[in-house]
Design goal:
Number of domains of chain A: 1
Structural class of chain A: mainly alpha
Shape of chain A: globular
CATH architecture of chain A: Orthogonal Bundle
Strand order of the largest sheet of chain A: 1-2
Radius of gyration of chain A: 18 Å
Largest interface: A-B, 55 and 55 residues
Oligomer: homodimer
CATH class of chain A: Mainly Alpha
CATH topology of chain A: Farnesyl Diphosphate Synthase
Order of helices and strands of chain A: HHHHEEHHHHHHHHHHH
Strand content of chain A: under 5%
Helix content of chain A: 55-70%
Chain lengths: 297, 297
């Protein structure tokens, strides 16, 4: 666990520095949107998706620094989704990671545009990245396409839609699985495979990483649901109990808390099992899988 | 003019068919967002940006059909920007092209996500397109990057921000130019050059097309301002006089109506002048430039 904490902390710093370099000093008539974008990007995210991208690259023998732009792009996409998700028309949240949500600070119009700006910037960064040495140049558009699919209406946005539209509906197994897999697991899965793809990994290894990503993505969202019941408001930096108040579809809501915890354990074991083709270089991914169950925020 | 109408009508049909092929039949828990996306995509747009992309490709000797996915992507980006622009937090519009705006039909949450979905889909389509024969594969990421730049916080989104934040401020020349150039001209410019870039055109020709795009982009937004004063509500399919009621920065508001018309004429002449390196294959672009002054909607 200490090893993992050191690993996460080191990678987080690398990602933070790379993200800082993306944004100009805010100036000119559009400076507010740059301020709003950087506010949410540097509001204390765990950088899980960028770290998975880097760890995926390293697992297949690549260099983390070669995939850093892709890692950043994934965080830009994740952050845009949070800003839009917090808007009054969606979840109407005041707090995120212990800070005021974007629209509470900058107003709804700027928050909306800051989200749009982050999503667009993600694809600018991706399209402008150098392909790692030895990888064919056609791989880059393929990775961009996979990321757009995972983030789009067949992926994360589809999950958001189902989430919003299922509020107050009776808890239902098929629906909660759809929401969790698309809203959360799709982007986590593509994060895990994109770094490896950019390093030229073969399809078989990508398949193993994809299985890993889907399992921990689902486990991660279930742990989010559990923390929304059992978590500590102070540690989490956001409201607890909000899922129930809103009538959200959650894993504990459908299957009960104990069964949710059991499924989460199984998913983590399956995720680690799917890493069997890899040597010690997959140890960070193994540790991240275990950490998902233990996390407090 | 009749030639141009036939040209526009033919290209519009080609673009419409290509756009139709992008969207699946709406089904499953996220079907509402697909319905909302297609509602706005097929709400009667002029397809100016896709047609400019195709005309740009043909001007440098390429085939329009080879750049059709890029043409569609530009329309997806344009349509997302309209959906978000119409939201209550932004311009709060009820009508667009004579139809109810997206959020008036589907609600704010779905309209927001439909916009996000269209923007993401644009990059999925771009990244998945085959590079035209004879063009090096590295050109595709470069085009994606240029489109993201034009649509991002340094381009269209920056223009939107300045537009929203300047409402009610005293009319000011530098500000209205910033808004028009970024909010409107940047995407029109990249539309004109992207088709030619994908067909492998040389930098010098791209530069000429870029000048053309900037000039007609600005002229197009000035004609929008003029139509908001002199236009016919029925023909336009949206409110007239709304710019003045909202205290929007407009070209006639800053420089007066006559001067706005004079500048628009000059811009169109400069746009046509910038096409001097090209033969008759640039005739559609020349006709489009003239049409911008004559259009009634």
């Amino acid at each position: 666990m200490t090893d993992l904490q050191a690993y996460l902390s080191e990678k987080r710093q690398i990602v933070d520095r790379a993200l800082e370099s993306l944004f100009p000093d805010p100036q000119g008539p559009a400076s507010d949107v740059v301020r709003a974008m950087t506010y949410s990007i540097f509001a204390g995210g765990k950088r899980l998706r960028p770290i998975l991208c880097i760890a995926g690259a390293e697992t297949v023998g690549g260099e983390g620094r070669d995939v850093l732009p892709a890692a950043c792009a994934l965080e830009l996409i994740h952050t845009y989704s949070l800003i839009h998700d917090d808007l009054p028309a969606m979840d109407d949240d005041d707090l995120r990671r212990g800070k005021l949500t974007n629209h509470k600070v900058f107003g709804e119009a700027i928050a909306l545009l800051a989200g749009d700006g982050l999503l667009t910037e993600a694809f600018r960064v991706l399209a402008g990245m150098p392909v790692p040495d030895g990888t064919p140049s056609e791989v880059l558009p393929r990775v961009i396409r996979r990321i757009a699919e995972a983030a789009g209406f067949g992926g994360m946005i589809g999950g958001q839609v189902a989430d919003v539209q299922s509020e107050g509906a009776p808890p239902e197994a098929e629906r909660v699985r759809f929401i969790h897999e698309h809203k959360t697991a799709d982007l986590i899965t593509v994060a895990t495979v994109s770094g490896a793809l950019l390093c030229g990994a073969e399809e078989e290894l990508i398949h193993s990483l994809s299985t890993y990503g889907r399992r921990i993505g689902l486990a991660f969202q279930i742990s989010d649901d559990i923390l929304n019941i059992e978590g500590d408001r102070q540690t989490l930096g956001k409201d607890v109990g909000s899922d129930e108040r809103r009538g959200k579809q959650t894993w504990p809501g459908v299957f009960g808390l104990e069964e949710a915890k059991r499924v989460q354990q199984d998913l983590v074991l399956e995720a680690i099992e799917s890493l069997s083709p890899f040597d010690h270089r997959a140890d960070p991914l193994r540790a991240i899988a275990r950490y998902i169950i233990e996390r407090r925020k």
